[in-house]
Amino acid sequence: MEWGDLVIPARFVNNDFANNYRSYIFDMPEDSRYAGYTFAHPRKLTRYERGYRVLRLHDEWTFHLMKQAESGKLDEKAPIIDLSFDEMLNEFMDDLYSDEG
């Protein structure tokens, strides 16, 4: 198992859940096939760097995406989607390049 970093623009931090002291909650990009889904990552494995959140994780990490209902709470009826590191990287790739200016 190897450790690596996933870099995500800080604008994807979901501030509606900013009071969660254990994890940051992130929104998926609007142009992603998973738009409307969120995922959590432990605060102790996340750092801020020049407008980005850097998520520390190992190469076997699985992200669990959950759908938000219109009320802003989690939609318990929607399926949970599991994504690997590579799949998650592909979802954020366009946003990383567009943020470079």
UniProtKB/TrEMBL annotation:
It comes from the Bacteria. This is Uncharacterized protein. It comes from Dorea longicatena.
